[in-house]
Amino acid sequence: MGEALKTMRRLVCDALGPAREIHGEAWVRTPLSCLEAAFDTVPDMILIRFPEPDDPVRESYLELCGILKRNDRTRNCRVTALMSGAGRPFVDKLYSAGVDYAAPAPGGRMDSGTIREIIDALGEEHRLSCCRDRLCPYLRVVAVDTAGTMTVCGAYLDRMALGGRRLHELCETENHIGCEYFQSPRVRS
Q1: DSSP line for 47-111
Q2: Fewest beta carbons less than 10 Å away: which of 94, 110, 154, 159?
Q3: Domain count of the chain?
Q4: Domain containing 94: what range?
């Protein structure tokens, strides 16, 4: 190869963030600019903030992850998905794309301090394989209207909205195998 690559510690793709580079950290706003920056600099870690589940551009961010992990130049970069409202089907897509970690996206704008906090908090429980094993396979996120989403139980014909204690203590943990709906699902035929 022979060409010297600029090295960067982190690349952040966030449509809400600033487009700039500061102290070895680059911020970009679109999947295409993220791909270009990743190929130019080969960062140690790429953090991608995914839009809300009902946003049609969300698929382009997923495609970006797949391209990054399939490319010889960037496949060893650790990719972290920052998101809100991820049901099991979407986590499975992230897993297939090769994403390494998943973490909740903070509300509002992020800055370098927020990114450092997210990275410092990443542990084994944030590895996508662990996240995937923990989540009930029937857990789904559906659009309610143009302003929001709702987590529902696919084993109960998407008729049961999930939240609070049941969601966090049962559906998002290994305990989901003891759930009566998981054991006897009522799915659409």
Answers
A1: EEEPPPTT-TTHHHHHHHHHHHHHSTTTTTSEEEEEESS--HHHHHHHHHHT--EEEEPPSS---
A2: 159
A3: 2
A4: 1-133
